[in-house]
Amino acid sequence: MNRTDRRRAPTLTLSLLVSILASPLLQGEELGQVSTKFRVVGPNDKIVIEAFDDPAVAGVTCYLSRAKTGGVGGAMGIAEDTSDASIACRQTGPVSLAAEIRDKSRDGEEVFRQRTSILFKTMQVVRFYDAKRNTLVYMTYSDKLVDGSPKNSITAVPLLDYRPMQAERQLQDTGKSR
């Protein structure tokens, strides 16, 4: 091990520890799954659907579908999932953006992370703000310590006044319509 590697080792170890400890905080709620490949031993390969709320933007919920490898390796948590994923985010309530999001200083902020192999590979979702169109853009992609995948998916959430939608729901609940 050369001198540069010795200096980097504590940083890499700390980065790995932080990402392992922070991962549970940015995970989603599993909504459902479908099997895609039968495995004689261990669970089947599947596509999992997860939902998560943006931790910094109340009123936005994202739905992520991603591949999950089964078999013995998948059951033990040592199989590597593919980088395939799709995302759709929607405004689910009133949205108020923090100044740091509006001024774009938090562009690229991670809002979701899921470990997709035993070491070094993660699926993540990052957020950007398009001020010109008053729209939040979310992108999902996969990366590894050394190399990542160019596979990605994006979704856009135009920020709308939520009150008229709530009033319409209240009218529908009371049996009246416009």
Nutshell version of this structure?
This protein is an alpha+beta fold and 178 residues long. It is built from four helices and eight strands.
Placed side by side, the strands forming the largest sheet appear as 1-2-3-4
Radius of gyration: 20 Å
* Count of DSSP H/I helices: 4
Distance between the termini: 74 Å
Secondary-structure element order, N to C: HEEEHEHEEEEH
Helix-strand category: alpha+beta
Q: Estimate the helix proportion, in percent.
A: 10-25%
What are the low-pLDDT stretches, counting only 5+ consecutive residues below 50?
A: 11-25
Count of domains: 1
Main sheet: strands, sense, barrel: 4 strands, antiparallel
Q: What is the percentage of strand-forming residues?
A: 35-45%
Number of strands: 8
Averaged pLDDT: 80
Global geometry: flat
